[in-house]
Amino acid sequence: MIARRRYGRPAGPATCRVDPGRTMPGPAVCAAPGPLATEAARGPVWVPCTLIRAGLPVLVPALMAIAASSVAAQEPAAPGPVVERPAPGVQRIVRLETDRVRAVEIRYDPGAEAPRHTHAWGRVVYVLDGGTVELVAEDGSVQRLEVAPGMTIWRPAETHVVRNVGRTTVRTLEVEVKGAG
Question: Which pTM does this prediction carry?
Answer without folding.
Answer: 0.59
